[in-house]
Design brief:
The protein is built from ten helices and 14 strands. The chain is an alpha/beta fold and 325 residues long. The strands form two sheets. The protein has a ten-stranded mixed beta sheet, with helices on both faces. Bound molecules: threonylcarbamoyladenylate and magnesium ion.
Length: 325
């Protein structure tokens, strides 16, 4: 496998019947199609094909120890590949379609590629709350493995232009359906007996999950040793990194910086939300980080409250600010 392929032009598809049909055809042929979800654009390939999934890793230059999320169009498709406990079913019924990935035990008969799950006996599954995504998966007829459609370690894409910026000539197509409304990746949970473990804060606030289950989520207690297999991408330090250095909890920009504001702050180059609305801030986060990064200045960021979607935003910002490996 050798990517980028010099012969490959990335097709830009419309989210209409013809575009969906073309996307499904490319997936069936083992190709890669980027598609919009409510969180970020995904880089999709046939989750049951080792070669398709291998080319996802190649296109992203991604360290191949990370398992991918298998995206489904409906619960029936999910249950054909994974076992749902009562607890898991409750979560799926409450929050699917939506920005929640549930890590589930794999069925013995599952035909998912080993590379999709990294050889684990579990699979992370989610049903995106986006009509175009679900139509594509359903037209393809099986689960679609998809990480975010950006080169490994870079900012996640929330428009088709972002996808093209990073992956033009490395993937077969992108379905252009505008902005991703949520703007940060899905929340990921797993199970340990009766405990529900938070593996990554994301687009579904933790408080909503805790209210639904009437119990607290557990936080993972593992410590990441050098060379150990990470359980969720959160453990890779400098993930979601802009080129610029990032300084958090800033009340103003220093001379060499631009300010990414939140709330009614003065002199912000960009403001995630003038009204301090966390949902609006999440939807703006990656686009604004990209625009500020293009100024080639360092980025100072206003404090963001650490509840609801603020947790996912702070998680991504902490990673952007982490020392680079
Ligand atoms: O919103 C999202 O989740 C986006 C869109 C495209 O759906 N996808 C996304 O994928 O963020 P990605 O690959 O960047 O992050 C998925 C993470 C993996 O890095 C992995 O750590 C975790 O999900 N994951 C997947 N399967 C897992 C498993 N079986 N056990 C533990 N973690 C798993
Ligand atoms: Mg990603």
């Amino acid at each position: 496998m050798s990517l980028p392929r010099p012969d490959l032009t990335t097709e830009r598809l419309h989210p209409d019947d013809a575009g969906i049909a073309r996307g499904a055809e490319i997936l069936r042929a083992g190709g890669l199609v980027s598609f919009p979800t409510e969180t970020v654009y995904g880089l999709g390939g046939d989750a049951c094909s080792e070669t398709a999934v291998a080319s996802i890793f190649a296109a992203k230059d991604r360290p191949s120890f990370n398992p991918l999320i298998a995206h489904v169009s409906d619960l029936e498709m999910a249950r054909a590949y994974a076992h749902f406990s009562d607890l898991a079913l409750r979560l799926a019924m409450a929050f699917w379609p939506g920005p929640l990935t549930i890590v589930l035990p794999l069925r013995k008969t599952s035909k998912l590629a080993e590379l999709t799950t990294s050889g684990l006996q579990t699979v992370g599954m989610r049903m995106p709350d986006h009509t175009t995504a679900r139509r594509l998966i359903s037209a393809f007829g099986g689960p679609v493995a998809a990480p975010s459609a950006n080169p490994s370690g870079r900012i996640s894409p929330t428009t088709a232009d972002h996808v093209i910026d990073g992956l033009d000539g490395r993937i077969d197509a992108v379905i252009d359906d505008g902005n991703c409304p949520v703007g940060v990746e899905s929340t990921i949970v797993g199970f340990d007996g009766d405990d529900v473990i938070l593996l990554r804060p994301g687009g579904l606030p933790i408080e909503n999950i805790e209210r639904c289950l009437a119990r607290k989520l557990k936080h993972p207690t593992f410590a990441m040793q050098e060379g150990d297999q990470p359980i969720a991408p959160g453990q890779l330090t400098s993930h979601y990194a802009p080129q610029a250095t990032v300084r958090l909890n800033a009340d103003h920009a220093l001379p060499h910086e631009v300010l990414l504001g939140f709330g009614p702050v003065k002199n912000a180059a960009e403001n995630l939300s003038q009204n301090a609305d966390l949902q609006e801030a999440a939807a703006n986060l990656f686009t604004m980080l990209r625009r500020l990064d293009a100024t080639r200045k360092a980025i100072a960021v206003s404090p963001i409250p650490d509840h609801g979607l603020g947790r996912a935003i702070n998680d991504r910002l902490n990673r952007a600010a982490a020392p680079r490996g």
